[in-house]
Amino acid sequence: MKIAIVDESAARASIIEEGLSELDEPEIHILTQRQGLLARIEEISPDIVLIDLGNPSRDVLEEYFTVSRALAKPIAMFVDQSDDDAIAASIDAGVSAYVVDGLASNRIKPLLDLAVKRFNAFARLQTDLAEAKGKLAERETIDRAKRILMDSKGVTEPEAYAELRRKAMSSNRRIAEIAEAVVTAHDLMGGK
After folding, report:
1. What are the ANTAR domain coordinates in residue numbering (predicted)?
2. Nearest of 154, 157, 162, 135 to residue 146 by alpha carbon
């Protein structure tokens, strides 16, 4: 497992590194500079990113949230103190685990596991949502194509659907593809 530890304090980073000693030969990269952080993390391409901020200012916190939004990786963030706004911002930024006053070596491994599991669960939800939106868009296109056929040919809805289905089967394509072609052709011909 490739792990990036982001911490400006080498002493605090060593606490996190010690907590990772239970893992089976992890490849650990410690990043202590904020400058060019996103590029360095992308270059390393870690499986997970652990960020220890200690007691960050609002600007520093927002800077790290920007990094979090750009990465499609599980991220665990450690801070000494927090407020409701920072917690809400961490969720919006895609931070998988936001740990307040919890930097202890014996807690690192369970928190790493939590961050990975939450990230994977959220990724599954995003995939399901994208799939549902895609199906809804296809359904809307099919419904529009049926209306076009009903208006132009004077057929019923079941007949319009049957025609779309026949064309899809005869051309070995999906009904949604045929419907998209009907809608596109209608739009090109100036239909409304």
Report:
1. 122-183
2. 157
Report helix, strand or coil for 102. coil
Q: How many domains does the chain have?
A: 2
Contacts of 104 (CB under 8 A, 6+ apart): 15, 19
Assess if residue 111 is contained within a domain.
no
**Three-state secondary-structure class, residue 4:** strand
98, 68 in Cβ contact below 8 A? no
More confidently predicted of 77 and 178: 178
Question: Is residue 179 within 8 Å of residue 145, measured between CB atoms?
Answer: yes
Look at 29-38, 50-59, 164-173 and tell me which has the smallest mean pLDDT.
Answer: 50-59
Structure tokens at 86: 């920072």
Domain that holds residue 16: 2-103
- Does the residue 120 lie in any domain? no
pLDDT digits (tens, 9 = 90+) for 166-185: 999 999 999 999 999 999 99
- Distance from C-alpha of 147 to C-alpha of 157, rounded to nearest angstrom: 8
**Using one digit for the tens of pLDDT, what is the confidence trace for 21-33?**
888 888 999 998 8
